[in-house]
Amino acid sequence: MKATAPHQYYQDRYADRPLGDAAREPTFRERVERALGAIGAPPRRILDFGCNTGEASEAFAAAGHRVVGIDVSRSAVALAAARVRNASFLRVESESSLPFADSSFDACFCSEVIEHLFDVPGFLAEIARVLAPGGVLVLTTPYHGWLKNVLVVSFNFDRHFDPTGGHIRFFSAASLARCLAVAGFRVDALQGVGRVWPFWKSMLVVARIDRRAS
């Protein structure tokens, strides 16, 4: 059986996905609005990492920001470029080798993506590199706290940890904060998105490069 490279898993995953589909996710608007608040007044240079079919990029561009969306999926990038004319889109091969110069962006938005990545340390190191001094990372990922995990393991283990699914990383607030700290980030805020604590659907982290650690 021929092996599939990690990035090939997503190549045509969005080829038949309706445009605007991601915006119908229950917490999408809340995630984007919180990100806009954390990023600040336009125009800022925003990297939309894992841009999917461009829904978040479209919202950022409409707010007056300069947006570059990237994704490993060829079909996602093609759909995003077709729907959003006032942003740029680029397909990348790897989360840990981005084709941008140091300090290219003022902000990075990475929403419901890090749980799909093989190289989490490499990804965070690259984001730290391409962010300008004072730049902000707004990151969301499914929340895995102790009590929620007990319920998941007790009642929904096979579906939640499906070995054929796309989620390969599972973060608690503490483990995500540790990964960010190793990459030189300081967490400024960590909030729940969707549902109530301790059953948050996702957590949203606002982090900045901690220059004292460099």
What are the defining features of this structure?
single chain; 214 residues; alpha/beta; Rossmann fold; seven-stranded mixed sheet; 7 helices; 7 strands; 30% helix
Give the arrangement of secondary structure elements.
Elements: H1 28-39, E1 45-49, H2 55-62, E2 66-71, H3 74-83, E3 88-91, E4 105-111, H4 120-130, E5 131-142, H5 146-155, H6 157-160, H7 173-182, E6 185-193, E7 202-209
Parallel strand pairs: 1-2, 1-4, 2-3, 4-5
Antiparallel strand pairs: 5-7, 6-7
Explained architecture:
By secondary structure, the protein is an alpha/beta fold. It has one domain (6-11, 19-213): Rossmann fold (3-Layer(aba) Sandwich), CATH 3.40.50.150. It has seven helices and seven strands, in the order αβαβαββαβαααββ. The longest helix is centred in the first third of the chain and has 12 residues, at 28-39.
Spatial extent as radius of gyration: 17 Å
- CATH topological fold name: Rossmann fold
The count of DSSP E runs of length 2 or more, i.e. the number of strands, is 7
Determine the structural class based on helices, strands and strand pairing.
Answer: alpha/beta
Order of strands, widest sheet: 3-2-1-4-5-7-6
Uncertain segments:
none
Strand content: 15-25%
Number of domains: 1
CA distance, first residue to last residue = 45 Å
Name the CATH architecture: 3-Layer(aba) Sandwich
Measured as a percent range, the helix fraction is 25-40%
Biggest sheet descriptor:
7 strands, mixed
Shape designation: globular
Q: Tally the helices: what do you get?
A: 7
Topology pattern, helix = H, strand = E: HEHEHEEHEHHHEE
Average pLDDT over all residues: 89
CATH superfamily: Vaccinia Virus protein VP39
Question: Can you identify the CATH class?
Answer: Alpha Beta
